[in-house]
Design a protein that fits this description.
By secondary structure, the chain is of the alpha/beta class. Helix content is 51%, strand content 13%. It has an 8-stranded parallel sheet. The protein starts with a helix and ends with a helix. It binds hypoxanthine (HPA) and zinc ion.
């Protein structure tokens, strides 16, 4: 490893854009399929990996929802999340804010409680055994109806103490944030924070709606903001973090190749950009791999890497005190020769 690679591997990081269902590696998919006696269309790990050729967001989502069908029992959700934490820990992720898609499971007859209890138990173990802290973000699937999102929030409320925020994911174009105004309003009244995927494939207008209507504290992806200079000014002035996912953006052809990614421009525009892995089992890398791929293609400096790592804690939902502790860790790390 050269010195910048070592620097990237070791710097303390927070991950703010990570779909737990997107961490399902093919090996675990097969193990769970066997345990739960679920037949799979693709017959081997190699065949599954070969099928991961996407040309846009929808072509990925189709295969991602298919894979999630092996998750049935509480222990499956535990195993899924624990596998993520072990990998993240090795890449010096110190804190993770994790998305889960309850509707992907409740639509198949899995109880909300089964899903969240397994995730929560893994989060407790990550804190006690790996010293990795985490928070949970409940995402509504935007291709489903607003009424389904309202029902999902109702199912979630008994478990509110385990949930930090609500989010919005799945097929973006044709499903603007405004479709979910009511459920986000209810979530806010319940004291939950808000984030939303916007400006991945959808236009800058969707980012405006996420800010103005859903009152999001962070924008997931948001890379298309650079098409609107007023929007960039607003995001910079209000220090709204963007959870950028470089490898995902290349796999789903948001940018043709990494050299064309706008991450460096986002930093130069003084935006609080962060680097994240999105769905690492599907996009070919966990968070440090994303840092590294972006650094190489865009020639990011050591200072820019440190800024991205700092932004990940600045943009998190940690308390001021916790955030400071992690930022101090970064300062000590950067001061080392
Ligand atoms: N975008 C939208 N929905 C998703 C994504 C994404 O990147 N990953 C998992 N669900
Ligand atoms: Zn995502």
């Amino acid at each position: 490893m050269n010195s910048l690679e070592t620097f990237i591997a070791g710097i303390p990081k927070a991950e703010l854009h990570l779909h737990i269902e997107g961490t399902l590696e093919p090996e675990l998919m097969f193990a769970l399929a066997q345990r739960n006696r679920i037949p799979l269309r693709l017959k081997s790990v190699e065949e599954v990996r070969r099928a991961y050729q996407f040309h846009n967001l929808q072509s990925f989502l189709d295969i991602y929802y298919e894979g999630a069908a092996v998750l049935i029992q509480e222990q499956d959700f535990y195993d899924l999340a624990w596998a993520y934490f072990e990998r993240a820990y090795k890449q010096n992720v110190r804190h993770a804010e994790i998305f889960f898609d309850p509707q992907t499971h409740t639509e198949r007859g899995i109880a909300f409680e089964t899903v969240i209890a397994g995730l929560q138990r893994a989060m407790e173990d990550a804190a006690s055994k790996l010293n990795v802290s985490s928070k949970l973000i409940l995402c509504f699937l935007r291709h489903l109806s607003a009424e389904s999102a309202v029902r999902t929030l109702e199912e979630a409320l008994p478990f509110k103490k385990w949930i930090t925020a609500v989010g919005l994911d799945s097929s973006e174009v044709g499903h603007p944030p405004s479709k979910f105004a009511r459920v986000f309003e209810s979530a806010r009244q319940e004291g939950l924070l808000a984030v939303a995927h916007a400006g991945e494939e959808g236009p800058p207008d969707y980012i405006w709606e996420a800010l103005d209507i859903l009152k999001v504290k962070r924008v997931d992806h948001g890379v298309r903001c650079l098409e609107d200079s007023r929007l960039v000014q607003r995001l910079a002035r209000e220090k709204i973090p963007l959870t950028v996912c470089p490898l995902s953006n290349i796999k789903l052809r948001v940018f043709e190749k990494m050299e064309h990614h706008n991450l460096k421009m986002l930093l130069e525009a003084e935006l609080t950009a962060t680097v994240n892995s999105d769905d690492p089992a599907y996009f070919g890398g966990y968070v440090a791999d994303n840092f590294l791929a972006a650094q190489k293609a865009l020639d990011l400096s050591r200072d820019q890497i440190a800024t991205l790592a700092r932004n990940s804690f600045e943009g998190s939902f940690l308390s001021g005190e916790e955030r400071k502790r992690y930022l101090d860790e970064i300062s000590r790390y950067c001061a080392k020769p």
